[in-house]
Amino acid sequence: MPSDTPAWSLHSRLKEDTIDIGDLPLCRVLVIKDAHYPWLLLVPRRPDVAEIIDLAEVEQAQLMTEISRVARALKEITKCDKLNIAALGNLVPQLHVHIIARRSSDAAWPRPVWGVMPPLAHDAEEVQHFISALRRKIWLG
User: Fold this and answer.
1) pTM here?
2) What start and end residues bound the annotated signal peptide (predicted)?
3) Which residue of 16, 85, 94, 129 is surrounded by the most CB atoms within 10 Å?
């Protein structure tokens, strides 16, 4: 990598709010620290990318492949009623895609999850079981 190419790093807010699961070919996969919802983030490991259109076309296609793979795994594991998939970035400018498993019985239903409930800490054992199941489904080991 040439020295004038900026290195990728995870935005500090995302680092603070998530648990790292691992890396797919393009994206880092993370779990949001909120036990109210099974909530994942995909963050393309490319520096200075704020929008999907900032990625090369091949990387955009790879992002969609990874979103589909992770969303399918999340749906299988959680048996959710609906998946919410969004790239908003209003607070964190680094491109990240939310994949949230929703149930009609969850605290925010049918509204978006943001700001409805304060984050609920995960039970350490439960979140490790969830992460292990996800890693098996999305081929991270």
Assistant:
1) 0.93
2) none
3) 94
